[in-house]
Amino acid sequence: MTGKKRIVSGMRPTGALHLGNYHGALANWITMQNDYDCFFFVADWHALTSDYENPAHIPAFTRQMIVDWLSAGLSPEKCTLFVQSHIKEHAELFLLLSMITPVPWLERNPTYKEQIEALNNKDLSTLGFLGYPVLQAADIIIYKAEGVPVGIDQAPHIEITREIARRFNHLFGPVFPEPATILTQTSKILGLDRRKMSKSYQNAIFLSDTPEDISARVAMMITDPQRMRRSDPGNPDICNVFEFHKIYSDAEMVATVNADCRTAGIGCVECKKLMAKGLIHALAPIREKNQYYSDHPEQVDAVIVAGREKAGRVAAETLAQVRAAVRLD
Q1: Cβ neighbours of residue 282 under 8 Å, at least 6 residues apart?
Q2: 191-224 tens-digit pLDDT
Q3: CATH class of the domain whose range is 211-290
């Protein structure tokens, strides 16, 4: 044991990571790895809840996610990185927890209702999709996590996990701590079209993009929608490009763009080019490391194997306690 509080979190492998993923979760993980005993996993089983009809891409996306994590700054010396499906104990604990989880708890999950409506082109009337919060609970409590880092919109998910852990402990005796919700700051950064950045919307900038890709994507960004002509004054307060400037440009550039936009001293095309330059510079180290790990697959293999072994040991210990508690030992 490290003496640090343990946290657990995961991401679904749906493709290369983009800036929304980075600012929404990964940047916080990178900071937290210095202060917590961190277990971060690729949630490949969770990817099947909505993409069960097309699983062929999941192995490649799983590996790419590990590469992106390493490239962005997660260190296998500071945290445990592993693939969910490599740890079969998750599945057994999910089965046991499903025996005690009331269906109404799952049906009232706000994300369940939202995704049923948003993904109406898919058949999500499956047990796996309804029950994914139970699998999520298993993912977390099998490592006896004391906290889970999430944005405010995901807090209800952790409350379901706490309820399931509490119910198990009530029925079978104290085995699991109730993980706390660790609210993390997330950026207001949006996609190219001012919607939430998402691969499915095709409005994302990826961590592994080349300078040419970044320049092309930034050129398509929507700026101040009320600024119709180059001679019109703009309003940086409602411009998504300016939000990027505040993250990726230096303070002098931010001040200059802020002032010049309001007086029509700078046009949107020039503003985008200046921002793209800063973004390309900021992502260069990540892009270089991404190429390095792509050229050295054996190092990625070693990280995955080490993570599987460590996570497996912890999960096996917990599951032995669970089996004893429910008289299956």
Answers
A1: 248
A2: 999 999 988 889 999 999 999 999 999 999 999 9
A3: mainly alpha
